[in-house]
């Protein structure tokens, strides 16, 4: 039945099912058990609830010549917990699968559901990964696990674009107009549509090529992989499967997959992933025998063992066991780089009210079109017109009411805004978010400071900056407790680590060039005193093992050995509150909290150092050491105090946002007191505002959870403070207090004081010691309060928050990163107001074009409906001229740049709102009154006739044959339906009205630069001058130059006489009284002159 419907509907039903997969499944399928289904209907779990139809495919494994076939308890994969073993149907050796957004899912026969494949199971422990996969896979296992990854061609994108409802509706409209003889008009629109589709497909092609290159550049990498039965060999990275052993060689190369490091160490650049091109040290997965899942075992720090696809391996550090090896964790679109590609291919739908309102608005216009359709049927039936012509005219009026370009109008401003942002080094992988940027009213910052400067080291004694430290545990900690590396003979790494190491005046040797020392592995990094360092009784320190820094753990530590000695030490560096929790209480000064507060309230960055002497032998496997075992019973060494100066661009940016009434919030990993001071110095908190510290505690025994509120004590501010009291907005003055709290307190409030959370967030400005997960949670809570949230961060620890925000901006050198939808290559916060400006300009442009096209359609609808009353319609060239002018004006109104200054209010973000609805209704009413008056007044003129005289006004444009009142069509009616006084009156009124609306809606200040970059009063003067010029020209031409009576009087006054021969003879004869002669006969006189005859003339006459 459906096939018959496809045929009789000429494919319309099939197209409808393409747009509505749920209807397709309902019509073609019957409900059944998921295990028996051939077609599955998927629905997203978000508020959009979008449906997708997926066909279940069968993968036949019998072609792989598997050795095991019949026994039901035999395993095809060595990993008995693998979902592949539970998915293979025996003895058929087939697997049911579906593919959703490039990710493959297979049917798990045991749990009766589809499970994702393409990655190792998270249920594996550290022991499982080492023993199951440490020796590689067999060739049979590789064949079973292998799944090719395909990328659609450009023809897929073209086909998908053409099937867009916008283009389908436009095709229907053009077909209708062509069938009625509007050849030139339809051809012009087809040409414009082809150009539009071509440009769109070209952009898609460019994006597709970039994405294809992004995918293929790691598919064709030559890698060394090891198998159980064939050993190590070279192969293309596209053939890697989860569980393969990947051998990492010493040269620089990009990783083609996600992998877990199991042997040796390496240093990678994760700029593509985080946006920060800072070397990151990776350590091997511990070889422990516990049964914890490997991610759970490493807690929040599991990423230090994972090498991510697309990141660059800078250095490898093989151990004595052999080369650096890693187990392939994920391949293809399951990887970190694949996630970036999928986020571009399948962007997250935007729950923006603008797009929801646009759909409602189109429904309203469609309803108006239906009313017009009914009106047309009534009029034409009353005049007894044929059914065919009635239906055609009714559909024509319906298509006029709904301009097919309306959906595309919402993206017009986005296209130009994206190009302007690209010119300003701000790149976007989700263009739909540009419009949302125009609504941002809260921005969260992680980085507003830079320029670290080491001030001193405070314990029992103070060591001033620039003075080399004397040898001791302090010096040992600062020289070794870092993640720096030597690359191209330069020390590279985190800026804090570099500043700390420079304060020791020590030097670092590349591990590849360091001399072999007794008892020190060749792979160790060696630091030794430099020429300017204080005398030290050691030749140097070897950094044997590193527990990298984690924002969740808020600390890092290293295991070191003094060269030439058997003494092993552990040094720890991190947040003071965290480090002291691992120290013996008696080693922590009693005034620790007081001293810490002294420095943090001045805005300094404070780092704590600690030490522990380790008693272990030379044969200890450092890679297998548990972090919790060695990081205990430490001795507190002191506080490292550093000044993190405010960026020069931060103050103006924050002041600009404050003046625009956009809230600024700090979300940072720094100490709470430090963050409060920085917020005051930057102007985020006014000097006259009160800051209330919130401290919440978890329940302890019978004591329930508690929360305390404490006013920050007034303290003397340093001279770098910015007083913006005069710039403070009325909103800030009415709420002259700010809340500040740390991540621990925030977590307690979310869990135990949920009702207080909105009250705190409304005035919460400083959130310190926030973990990545807490940052994402905070962004989400702000969004629940209907804030439009922007987030600016470095991408390293803010990936979740950047993705969660309406507009996440990663400060990165990359053009695109998985971290956020926006990436700024300019590493400062100036990109934030720039993005908001362009977002506002794009939003205003989209609104202007939307309103313009709506009123353009309604204007044509009213004019056409009036002409239908007399069975008339606009001409072919009339429609053509209108649409060409309209298209040109739409383009001109969209290219206007953003206004350089942020206004203290946002542009409207709703289409269904009183201002916009009133604008459309009033302009439509004025247009209707004008057209109806013109239509009625022309009938009252004494020279009016129902049909124009064809001899006086020849038919210059006609397009279709309209039947006469008797229902028959003839040649005279063909152009009389177009050529009429009503048509001649309404067409200029509608056209000029559209031009007027285009300029009225092309608003400039305060969100866009004016269309004409001159003051408003000057534009008024120009209009006055043009009007005066028109009046003078009309007066001169019609009243003076074309006034015959005036010219005759002038000639008479000046006695002007014509010099024409006939005028001379007329005047002469008037004075001759003998002329004309009467009653006489005159004879010719004899000529005495010889007459000359031209021989040629005479010859020609003879011939």
From TrEMBL:
It is an enzyme of class 7 (translocase). GO terms for molecular function: ATP binding; ATP hydrolysis activity; ATPase-coupled monoatomic cation transmembrane transporter activity; metal ion binding; P-type transmembrane transporter activity; polyamine transmembrane transporter activity. PANTHER family: CATION-TRANSPORTING ATPASE 13A5-RELATED, CATION-TRANSPORTING ATPASE-RELATED. It comes from the Eukaryota. Its EC number is 7.2.2.-. Belongs to the cation transport ATPase (P-type) (TC 3.A.3) family. Type V subfamily. GO terms for cellular component: late endosome membrane. The chain crosses the membrane at residues 185-204, 358-382, 394-417, 849-871, 877-899, 911-938, 985-1004, 1016-1036. GO terms for biological process: intracellular calcium ion homeostasis. Gene3D superfamilies: Calcium-transporting ATPase, cytoplasmic domain N, Calcium-transporting ATPase, cytoplasmic transduction domain A, HAD superfamily/HAD-like. It catalyses: ATP + H2O = ADP + phosphate + H(+). Keywords: ATP-binding, Glycoprotein, Magnesium, Membrane, Metal-binding, Nucleotide-binding, Translocase, Transmembrane, Transmembrane helix. The keyword Methyltransferase does not apply. It is found in: Membrane. This is Cation-transporting ATPase.
């Amino acid at each position: 039945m459906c096939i018959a419907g496809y045929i009789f509907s000429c494919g319309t039903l099939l197209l409808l099912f393409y747009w509505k997969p749920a209807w397709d499944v309902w019509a073609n399928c019957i409900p059944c058990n998921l295990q028996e289904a051939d077609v599955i209907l998927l629905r997203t779990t978000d508020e959009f609830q979008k449906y997708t139809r997926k066909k279940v495919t069968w993968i036949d494994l019998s072609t792989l010549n598997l050795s095991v076939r019949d026994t039901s308890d035999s395993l095809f994969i060595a990993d008995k917990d693998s979902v592949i073993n539970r998915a293979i149907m025996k003895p058929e050796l087939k697997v049911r699968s579906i593919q959703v957004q490039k990710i493959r899912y297979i049917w798990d026969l045991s749990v009766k559901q589809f499970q994702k494949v393409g990655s190792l199971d998270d249920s594996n422990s550290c022991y499982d990964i080492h023993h199951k996969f440490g020796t590689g896979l067999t060739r049979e296992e590789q064949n079973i696990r292998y799944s090719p990854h395909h990328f659609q061609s450009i023809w897929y994108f073209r086909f998908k674009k053409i099937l867009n409802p916008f283009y389908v509706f436009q095709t229907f409209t053009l077909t209708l107009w062509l069938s009625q003889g509007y050849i030139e008009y339809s051809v012009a629109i087809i040409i414009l549509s082809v150009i539009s589709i071509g440009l769109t497909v070209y952009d898609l092609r460019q994006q597709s090529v970039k994405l294809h290159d992004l995918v293929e550049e790691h598919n064709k990498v030559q890698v060394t992989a090891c198998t159980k039965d064939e050993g190590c060999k070279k192969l293309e990275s596209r053939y890697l499967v989860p569980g393969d052993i990947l051998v990492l060689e010493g040269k620089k190369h990009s990783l083609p997959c996600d992998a877990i490091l199991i042997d040796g160490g390496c240093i990678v650049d994760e700029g593509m992933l985080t946006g920060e091109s800072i070397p990151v040290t990776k350590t091997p997965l511990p070889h422990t025998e516990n049964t914890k899942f490997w991610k759970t075992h490493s807690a929040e720090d599991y990423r230090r063992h994972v090498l991510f696809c697309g990141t660059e391996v800078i250095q490898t550090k093989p151990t004595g066991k052999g080369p650096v090896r890693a187990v392939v964790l994920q391949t293809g679109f399951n990887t970190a780089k694949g996630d970036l590609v999928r986020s571009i291919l399948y962007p997250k739908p935007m729950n923006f009210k603008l797009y929801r309102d646009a759909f409602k608005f189109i429904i309203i216009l469609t309803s108006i079109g239906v009313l017009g359709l009914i009106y047309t049927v009534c009029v034409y039936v009353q005049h007894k017109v044929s059914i065919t012509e009635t239906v055609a005219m009714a559909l024509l009026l319906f298509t006029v009411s709904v301009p097919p370009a309306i959906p595309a109008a919402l993206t017009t401003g986005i296209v130009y805004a994206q190009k302007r942002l690209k010119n300003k080094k701000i790149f976007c992988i989700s263009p739909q978010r540009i419009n949302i940027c125009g609504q941002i009213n809260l921005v969260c910052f992680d980085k507003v400071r830079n320029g670290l400067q080491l001030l001193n080291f405070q314990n029992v004694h103070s060591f001033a900056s620039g003075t080399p430290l004397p040898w001791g545990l302090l010096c040992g900690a600062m020289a070794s407790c870092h993640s720096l590396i030597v690359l191209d003979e330069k020390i590279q790494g985190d800026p804090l680590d570099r500043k700390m190491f420079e304060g020791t005046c020590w030097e670092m040797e590349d591990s590849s060039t360091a001399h072999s020392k007794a008892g020190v592995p060749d792979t160790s990094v060696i630091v030794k005193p430099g020429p300017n360092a204080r005398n030290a009784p050691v030749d140097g320190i070897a950094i044997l093992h590193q527990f990298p820094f984690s924002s969740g753990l808020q600390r890092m530590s290293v295991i070191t050995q003094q060269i030439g000695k058997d003494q092993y030490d552990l040094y720890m560096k991190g947040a003071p509150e965290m480090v002291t929790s691992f120290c013996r209480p008696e080693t922590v000064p009693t005034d620790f909290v007081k001293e810490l507060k002294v420095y943090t309230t001045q805005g300094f960055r404070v780092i704590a150092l600690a030490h522990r002497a380790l008693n272990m032998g030379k044969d200890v496997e450092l890679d297998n050491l548990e972090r919790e075992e060695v990081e205990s019973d430490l001795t507190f060494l002191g506080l490292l105090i550093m000044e993190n100066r405010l960026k020069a661009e931060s103050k103006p940016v924050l002041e600009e946002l404050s003046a625009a009434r956009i809230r600024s919030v700090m979300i940072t990993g720094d100490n709470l007191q430090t963050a409060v001071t920085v917020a005051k110095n930057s102007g985020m908190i006014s000097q006259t505002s009160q800051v209330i510290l919130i401290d919440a505690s978890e329940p302890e025994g019978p004591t329930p959870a508690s929360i305390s509120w404490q006013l920050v004590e007034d303290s003397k501010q340093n001279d770098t403070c910015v007083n913006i009291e005069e710039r403070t907005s009325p909103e800030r003055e009415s709420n002259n207090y700010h809340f500040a709290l740390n991540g621990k307190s925030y977590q307690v409030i979310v869990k135990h004081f949920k009702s207080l959370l909105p009250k705190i967030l409304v005035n919460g400005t400083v959130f310190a010691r926030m973990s990545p997960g807490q940052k994402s949670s905070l962004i989400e809570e702000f969004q629940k309060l209907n804030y439009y949230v922007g987030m600016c961060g470095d991408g390293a620890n803010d990936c979740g928050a950047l993705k969660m925000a309406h507009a996440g901006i990663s400060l990165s050198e990359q053009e695109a990163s998985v971290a956020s939808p926006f990436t700024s290559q300019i590493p400062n916060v100036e990109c934030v107001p720039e993005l908001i400006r362009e977002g506002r300009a794009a939003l205003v442009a989209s609104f202007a074009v939307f309103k313009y096209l709506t009123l353009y359609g309604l204007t044509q609808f009213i004019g056409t409906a009036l002409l239908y009353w007399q069975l008339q319609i606009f001409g072919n060239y009339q429609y053509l001229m209108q649409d060409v002018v309209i298209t040109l004006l739409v383009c001109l109104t969209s290219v206007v740049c953003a206004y350089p200054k942020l206004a203290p209010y946002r542009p409207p973000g709703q289409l269904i709102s009183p201002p916009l609805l009133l604008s459309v209704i009033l302009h439509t009413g004025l247009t209707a009154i004008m057209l109806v008056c013109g239509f009625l007044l022309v009938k009252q003129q004494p020279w009016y006739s129902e049909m124009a005289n064809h001899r006086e006004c020849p038919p210059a444009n006609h397009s279709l044959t309209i039947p006469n009142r008797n229902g028959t069509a003839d040649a005279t009616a063909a152009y009389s339906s177009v050529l009429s006084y009503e048509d001649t009156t309404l067409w200029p009124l509608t056209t000029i009205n559209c031009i007027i609306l285009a300029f009225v809606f092309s608003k400039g200040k305060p969100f866009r630069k004016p269309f004409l970059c001159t003051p408003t009063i000057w534009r008024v003067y120009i209009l006055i001058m043009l009007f005066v010029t028109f009046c003078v020209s009309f007066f001169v031409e019609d009243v003076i130059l074309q006034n015959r009576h005036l010219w005759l009087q002038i000639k008479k006054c000046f006695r002007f006489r014509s010099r024409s021969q006939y005028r001379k003879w007329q005047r002469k004869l008037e004075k001759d009284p003998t002329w004309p002669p009467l009653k006489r006969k005159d004879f010719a006189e004899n000529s005495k002159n010889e007459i000359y005859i031209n021989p040629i003339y005479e010859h020609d006459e003879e011939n």
